[in-house]
Amino acid sequence: MAVRAFEGKDHAAAYWQFRVTPQELISKIMSSMDKKTPKQFSLALDVGCGSGQGTKLLAPYFTKVVGTDISPAQLEMASANSNPPNVSYRQCPAEELPFASGEVDLVTAMTAAHWFDRPRFLQEADRVLRPGGCMALLSYTLDMELEYRDISKALTDVCKEFYNALLPFRDPYLGPSSQKLYADMFESCSYPDKEWTDRLQVRRTLPLNGYVCMVETFSSYQKMKQKDPAGAERLSNDISNKLMSIMKVSSPDTEVTMVVNYFYFLAFKPS
Hints:
Blueprint: H1 9-18, H2 23-36, E1 43-47, H3 53-57, E2 64-69, H4 72-80, E3 87-91, E4 104-110, H5 118-128, E5 129-140, E6 145-147, H6 152-166, H7 178-188, E7 193-207, H8 208-216, H9 219-227, H10 229-247, E8 255-268
Parallel strand pairs: 1-2, 1-4, 2-3, 4-5
Antiparallel strand pairs: 5-8, 6-8, 7-8
């Protein structure tokens, strides 16, 4: 892995509790695979699986699903939670996958590939994929919006304040835009059968505090927290209080709708 992050036990627990699971995207991936090579769903590999939320979503479709990650804490969290019997986890770098050449039907990475040594990962994904197999890489932009009655724009403006405060703590490895990193990977992928989707909105209803806690799982927030714990806590509290004030509510448990803007690409290895 080019960059190691999300490795503390507390961070892994928060990651499990608050990160969004992209069921809508899994459905699209499986629909595309079914059109290309129906019935060939033996082994799926979820690289950089974290605490396993996305890994489990693949379980109904494949005979066997394996989540891999470099972080023991994340894998411990993934294994500790209830898993379907066909799901397992292994510790390894994204660039050194412990699978035979041509063994895997689907290689996916959900909000993780931007941390990899991307050229080496693409090469390794190509090695383990069977002919006709699918690589599906997805992530989301860090501009989640909040919807609540008729004040959604005002809430989203406060959300932007949150994100802007974290920009100085963004890892330089990611550059100014992780979406560009994925677009670059898409362009560098030599498979002729590939498709890019720039935007797919996923909506989730959750407590206002759940939104704040989700942003706190960002690597940039965690870096701020390491450098200035009091400042990070103050930022979270200020944002939460501003949002509650606009909503005219007193409880951070008040439910809102969070809109997450995903992007992704699918690429099929030539048969």
